[in-house]
């Protein structure tokens, strides 16, 4: 253990900007890997389960202790990167420690401490992307406006989540519906991503209730030459698609509007669903419980618990309908509490026992808190669950 601590201390003392802790010693380990990244004044750890990711901020002076308490007896490999070197630490199941530090080529110079610039984004800075210029995120020369860097990272994070889902999906053309598209900056970027970066054919329909917004969006699509992107005035609940739907996107659809979007996606047999819920008020109005009264006694706790429970229920219901579902952090919580993205990718088959387990968990929550989520009711009435 002394050698392990010594090597981890060496890594913590180096100018590392990324650390990956992997290879759990036991199959029952809570997290399959942990990624620690350097931010401006702290480190952020992202711990990954099969379906979720949990974040924790770490002060620089606490990094050594964090690494030791996390790795010792739990993980068998640690990789860490600084500007011109990679540290590799291997631990055998008998506790033998093997350490190597090797020089790497092509890294930034030692004088460059801006590790954010090392990240290769899907949208490349320096390349003019017309919608980003009009949004004020890029300058006319394709440089990121300094005050818009968080928004630039958010857009790239969204595209990364899309790319992870479609990279193994055999497609040449995708039909996509964006419910509640609003001003549609992500809709335009989605079209740009598929047509200009991936060189794939897509048809995207954006829906919103505001006619003036739809008019402006259609004018912008024409201006950019986005021939297979159109916008229509339409209600999430009543829209009828006249083509096979491969992907449904719904960003910040308020309260039960998200449920109707997910319901239609399931009914259309959509292969992929990307949803960022917003204003999950339904459960907050419904829940009552004596056994867990402390969760409903304090307004802010009740509100946040209701929002998290709502999205957990949605995740389970999508699993029961045949989707591999993940709840992912879309935006850093420091910027907005509405930061969960539901990513659901269709699986081939759901064993009956697995489906029953997911539904049983939902129904236990419903019984305990005297609640009936809209998505559960819609799927039940349609015979989907």
CATH topology-level fold name of the largest domain: Rossmann fold
How large is the count of helical segments?
12
Low-confidence stretches: 106-118, 332-337
Question: What count of domains describes the coordinates?
Answer: 2
Description:
The protein folds into 2 domains: 2-103, no CATH class; 169-381, Rossmann fold (3-Layer(aba) Sandwich), CATH 3.40.50. It is an alpha/beta fold. The strands form 2 sheets. A 7-stranded antiparallel beta sheet has the order 4-3-2-1-5-6-7, with helices on one face. The protein has a 7-stranded mixed beta sheet with strand order 10-9-8-11-12-14-13, sandwiched between helices. Mean pLDDT is 86; it is low at 106-118 and 332-337. Helices cover 36% and strands 25% of the residues. The chain is built from 12 helices and 14 strands.
Which helices and strands occur, and which strands form pairs?
Layout: H1 2-13, E1 18-24, E2 33-38, E3 43-48, E4 53-58, H2 63-71, E5 75-82, E6 85-91, E7 97-103, H3 130-134, H4 149-166, E8 173-179, H5 185-197, E9 201-208, H6 211-224, E10 229-233, E11 247-254, H7 257-267, E12 272-278, H8 282-286, H9 294-297, H10 299-320, E13 323-329, E14 340-346, H11 352-369, H12 374-381
Parallel strand pairs: 8-9, 8-11, 9-10, 11-12
Antiparallel strand pairs: 1-2, 1-5, 2-3, 3-4, 5-6, 6-7, 12-14, 13-14
Helix pairs in contact: 1-2, 7-12, 10-11
């Amino acid at each position: 253990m002394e050698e392990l601590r010594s090597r981890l201390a060496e890594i913590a003392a180096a100018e590392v900007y990324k650390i990956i802790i992997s290879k759990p010693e036991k199959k029952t380990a809570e997290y399959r890997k942990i990624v620690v990244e350097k931010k401006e004044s702290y480190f952020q750890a992202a711990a990954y389960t099969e379906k979720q990711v949990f974040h924790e901020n770490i002060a620089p002076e606490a990094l050594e202790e964090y690494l030791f308490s996390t790795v010792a007896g739990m993980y068998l490999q640690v990789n860490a990167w600084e500007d011109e070197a990679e540290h590799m630490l291997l631990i055998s199941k008998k506790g033998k420690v093997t350490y190597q530090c090797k020089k790497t080529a092509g890294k930034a110079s030692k004088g460059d401490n801006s590790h954010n610039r090392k990240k290769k984004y899907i949208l490349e800075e320096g390349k003019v992307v017309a919608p980003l210029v009009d949004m004020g995120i890029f300058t006319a020369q394709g440089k990121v406006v300094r005050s818009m860097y968080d928004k630039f990272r958010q857009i790239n994070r969204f595209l990364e989540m899309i790319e992870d889902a479609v990279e193994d999906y055999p497609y040449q053309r995708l039909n996509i519906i964006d419910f509640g598209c609003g001003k549609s900056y992500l809709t335009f970027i989605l079209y740009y991503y598929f047509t200009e970066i991936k060189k794939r054919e897509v048809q995207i329909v954006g829906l919103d209730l505001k006619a003036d917004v739809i008019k402006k969006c259609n004018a912008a699509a024409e201006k950019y030459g986005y021939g297979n992107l159109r916008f229509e005035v339409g209600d999430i609940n009543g829209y009828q698609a006249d083509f096979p739907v491969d992907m449904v996107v719904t960003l910040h659809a308020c309260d039960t509007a998200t449920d109707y979007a997910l319901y239609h996606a399931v009914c259309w047999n959509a292969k992929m669903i990307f949803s960022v819920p917003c204003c999950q008020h339904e459960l907050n109005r419904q829940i009552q419980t004596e056994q867990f009264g402390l969760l409903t006694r304090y307004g802010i706790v009740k509100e946040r618990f209701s929002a998290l429970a709502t999205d957990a229920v949605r995740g389970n219901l999508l699993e029961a309908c045949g989707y591999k579902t993940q709840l992912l952090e879309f935006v850093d919580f420091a910027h907005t509490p509405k930061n969960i993205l539901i990513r659901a990718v269709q699986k081939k088959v759901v064993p009956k026992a697995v489906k029953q387990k997911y539904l049983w968990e939902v129904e236990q929550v419903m019984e305990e808190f005297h609640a009936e989520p809209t998505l559960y009711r819609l799927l039940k009435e349609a015979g989907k669950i």
